[in-house]
Write a sequence for this structure.
């Protein structure tokens, strides 16, 4: 889950002792004008969980209360990278001498926390890695050794930090400690600025929390930014189902992430377009009724493939849910089944007796039939 | 140990739970040597005719085991895995999905120190048809698994099951099924599994079932380039939109990293035949198996 800048700064950086500019979080232009009185010349920054704010015009200076009001009003009406701007952060203007980059992330390849630091702040880190590799330092943290001030200093040695080495090392060590404490997947400070007066301050912060650890970070998780989701995706999430709405017309109901992706792939291979991703694997396999409702609620759906291959998930339990729900909802689109694995015989019987349908032996054949049906429905032909 | 052998003694952590009980029964039915279980609240009892201990360490002292398999919820997975590792398990099969990343890192760190092999997390387990299985795979179902000479590697349990079923129907039995897990940080990588099957005298050909995301298929391709056994692959996720996690936390494409095209290119450059759909796999394999030793030309030409 992602966080807005103001939450990351106030709830994570400041409590960790990492300096941040004076700031006021505002929801209205009037709040922004009032905040100016307290802050003086400031930056008005759109609060959206995306890195494209500056280029989109979501970060502007204000040099009077009236300007703060007008700029805030304009930014509050914006939509940036799909996110409506619901609030702005007014932050005192900084006199920047140098911009650095600092981040702690989980490096999946080495299965370690990774500390990144670069003297080229304000740029995309991928770009720095490609164009100025000499300016970038990476340090994989061994859990036994940890990462303290001394480790940070040795990581920074040889870089020209304009006299800010001590402050930067302290910040890196504090950032590392806090990233573990809050189960962060990524904390990125870009830029980490050296001000004209020599102070080092975090001017921006991107924070991603490990979704799997939300249960033990309940207070912070409550403040996560809402993910941009369609209504159906939100309904799926509320039911504990990972549903992704796509723009095709062949609905997909399958168990397990791998089989679901494969069903989408075969739809595309057969000349169709998948209408959704929806997996009911793992513990979710008992939710096939809720899942079916979601798939059918997607307005683009013209046919449906039900593809079950039971390992952990029992196909009889899933098929029973689908057959019961299908009878109740009585949808007007055609459905094509392929069922194998754990509970197969009972599942096939349920579909045969409940819906008068014979599941296809090969999933490729079920998919091809569904793609053909969607095509013929789209061209006005009889679907069934 | 990556490939299950009946000589391996298995400890089931969480044996008394609903899933633990169901799958332990299936494992025993299939021939797996389950010797003990763990549940701190039921220590001293017997469950499914094996002794239950408070910890893996206590089990090891009285009823030594080689492999631990975890039916443990995410919040307790770290503690259970460290218990098994410190007890001296040679391998730990972690079925649990959604373990916090920091806990996964701690598990891999401890495993490296104790030289323990971790399979998973978020794996459906490993099957050796004719010998047994460890995990939540239908290893007991003869329509899906039959002894044979094809080794199968899969990040996904459901897709792996479908592919083994297709092989069995085509008359191609399996030497081993290695479920390595859908998480981004797994202990046994695609490459590790490929090497294990390359070293396995009973395996004559390999099916490598990958997924978009990460760089494990690319690393496996490097290894495959030097193999004499034929390798056929299927990569799931070609039609998945970029930037979205497709169910498995590891299955996300960001930028060009982890993309379908990149993986397919790497595998084909290594002489691996890449199937467009799962149904094509048995045919590609049969043409590979009919040639002894060297890879046939059909495997170098993109499918």
């Amino acid at each position: 889950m992602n966080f807005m800048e103001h939450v990351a700064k106030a709830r994570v950086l400041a409590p960790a002792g990492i300096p941040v500019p004076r700031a006021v979080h505002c929801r209205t232009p009037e709040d922004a004008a009032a905040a100016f009185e307290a802050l003086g010349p400031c930056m008005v920054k759109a609060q959206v969980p995306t890195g494209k704010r500056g280029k989109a015009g979501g970060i502007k200076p204000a040099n009077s209360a009236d300007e703060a009001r007008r700029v805030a009003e304009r930014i509050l009406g914006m939509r940036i990278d799909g996110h409506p701007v619901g609030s702005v952060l007014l932050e005192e203007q900084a006199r920047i001498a140098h911009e650095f980059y600092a981040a702690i992330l989980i490096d999946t390849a080495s299965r370690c926390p990774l500390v990144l630091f670069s003297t080229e702040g304000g740029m995309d880190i991928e770009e720095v890695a490609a164009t100025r590799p000499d300016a970038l330092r990476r340090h994989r943290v061994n859990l036994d050794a940890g990462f303290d001030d001394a480790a940070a200093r040795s990581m920074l040695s040889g870089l020209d930090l304009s006299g800010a080495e001590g402050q930067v090392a302290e910040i890196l060590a504090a950032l590392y400690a806090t990233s573990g404490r809050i189960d962060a997947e990524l904390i990125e400070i870009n830029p980490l600025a050296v001000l004209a007066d020599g102070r080092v301050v975090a001017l921006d912060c991107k924070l991603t929390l490990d979704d799997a650890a939300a249960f033990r970070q309940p207070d912070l998780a409550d403040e996560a930014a809402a993910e941009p989701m369609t209504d159906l995706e939100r309904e799926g999430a509320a039911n504990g189902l990972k549903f992704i709405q796509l723009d095709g017309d062949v609905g997909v109901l399958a168990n397990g992430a791998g089989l679901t992706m494969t069903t989408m792939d075969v739809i595309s291979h057969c000349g169709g377009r998948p209408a959704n991703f929806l997996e009911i694997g793992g513990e979710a396999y008992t939710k096939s009724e809720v899942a079916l409702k979601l798939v059918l609620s997607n307005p683009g759906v013209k046919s449906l493939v039900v593809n079950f291959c039971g390992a952990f998930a029992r196909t009889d339990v899933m098929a029973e849910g689908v057959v019961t729900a299908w009878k109740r909802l009585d949808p007007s689109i055609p459905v094509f089944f392929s069922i194998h694995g754990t509970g197969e015989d009972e599942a096939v019987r349920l579909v045969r007796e409940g819906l008068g349908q014979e599941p296809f032996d090969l999933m490729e054949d079920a998919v091809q039939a569904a793609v053909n049906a969607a095509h013929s429905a789209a061209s006005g032909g009889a679907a069934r | 140990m990556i490939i299950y052998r009946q000589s391996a003694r298995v400890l089931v952590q969480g044996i008394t739970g609903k899933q633990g009980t169901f799958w332990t029964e299936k494992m025993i039915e299939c021939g797996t040597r389950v010797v003990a279980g763990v549940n701190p609240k039921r220590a001293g009892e017997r469950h499914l005719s094996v002794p239950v201990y408070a910890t893996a360490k206590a089990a090891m002292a009285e009823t030594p085991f080689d492999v631990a398999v975890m039916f443990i919820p995410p919040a307790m997975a770290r503690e259970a895995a460290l218990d098994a590792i410190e007890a001296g398990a040679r391998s730990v099969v972690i079925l649990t999905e959604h373990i916090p990343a920091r806990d996964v890192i701690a598990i891999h760190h401890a495993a490296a120190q104790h030289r323990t092999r971790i399979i998973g997390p978020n794996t459906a387990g490993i099957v050796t048809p004719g010998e047994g299985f460890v995990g939540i795979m239908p290893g007991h179902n003869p329509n899906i698994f039959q002894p044979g000479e094809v080794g199968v590697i899969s990040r996904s349990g459901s897709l792996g099951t479908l592919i083994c079923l297709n092989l069995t129907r085509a008359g191609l039995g399996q030497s081993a099924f290695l479920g390595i897990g859908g998480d981004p940080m797994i202990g046994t990588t695609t490459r590790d599994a490929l090497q294990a099957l390359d070293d396995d005298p009973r395996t004559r050909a390999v099916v490598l079932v990958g997924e978009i995301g990460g760089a494990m298929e690319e690393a496996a391709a490097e290894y495959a380039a030097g193999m004499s056994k034929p390798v056929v692959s299927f990569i799931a996720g070609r039609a998945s939109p970029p930037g979205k996690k497709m169910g498995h936390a590891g299955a996300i494409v960001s930028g060009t990293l982890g993309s379908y095209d990149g993986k397919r290119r790497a595998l084909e450059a290594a002489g691996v035949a890449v199937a467009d759909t799962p149904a094509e796999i048995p045919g590609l394999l049969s043409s590979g198996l009919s040639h002894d030793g060297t890879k046939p030309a059909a495997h170098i030409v993109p499918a």
Summary: Chain B touches chain A through 58 residues (CB under 8 Å). The mean pLDDT of chain B is 92. DSSP finds nine helices and 14 strands in chain B.
